[in-house]
Amino acid sequence: MGAYDEKKETCGTICLKYLLFTFNFLFWLAGGAVMAVGIWTVAEKSDYISLLSSRIYAVSAYILIVAGIVVMITGVLGCCATFKEQKGLLRLYFVLLLFIFLLEVLAGVLAYVYYQQLNTELKENLKETMTQKYQQAGQDHITQAVDKLQQEFKCCGSNSSSDWSESQWILTQKANGRVVPDSCCKTPTENCGRRDHPSNIYKVEGGCITKLENFILDHLKIIGAVGVGIACVQIIGMIFTCCLYRSLKAEPY
């Protein structure tokens, strides 16, 4: 009877090992996906980040990058701990899973919090940023971000093209007679911003603020969903780890 119980326990341990190995492989792939979302946010959309006064959006992305790197390292460590059946490695693996879980939840919470305050922040800051910093000394990154924003989203001005009448740059001779930046034009050419007729420039209801808000809100949903989703999956990994640890602890040496 004792031999049967020992054999049964060993079979259970083997099943747990393969379950945990499968989980770690999927977890490793998920880590790559998390890191990719974070890198994409920072690399491809960094121009838009410069238009935001709050750094919560950027911080959420950096947290995902860090979490993704740690997840991939942890996935490899988990495979080693599983097949070597070392309780010390399993304990370390569990602690790392818990750490990543907290990071992912933090990223998700930050994304949700920023989701709630984004509209207010854009209304308070975007117009001022565009009119006061565009084409100003030392603000090249803002200029590039505004030009990219207006061309990519086919819009002009924060709320409307008339916002540019308050621009420090437009009010100077440096604007060369322009009433809006050339990036407002449907077909951008040198000095095309001298005409603000609807046939020449983008006149979108709600202006760029609505376009940018919708874009960031959609992306925050992705950041939040990825963070919380991976965090939930990690709970399964922690349960498997605990089961394997108890199984190894119970086996005779």
Q: How helical, in percent, are the residues?
A: over 70%
Distance between the termini: 19 Å
Question: SS-based structural class?
Answer: mainly alpha
Order of secondary-structure elements: HHHHHH
Overall average residue pLDDT: 79
Cα-atom Rg, whole angstroms?
26 Å
* Number of distinct helices: 6
General shape = rod-shaped
Q: Which spans have pLDDT < 50 for at least 5 consecutive residues?
A: 1-9
How much beta, percentage-wise?
Answer: under 5%
Please tally the β strands and state the result: 0
Main beta sheet strand tally, sense and closure = none
Question: How would you portray this structure in words?
Answer:
This protein is mostly helical and 253 residues long. It is built from six helices and no strands. It has helices at 2-44, 46-49, 56-84, 87-133, 140-152, 207-250. α4 (87-133) packs antiparallel against α6 (207-250). The chain starts with a helix and ends with a helix.
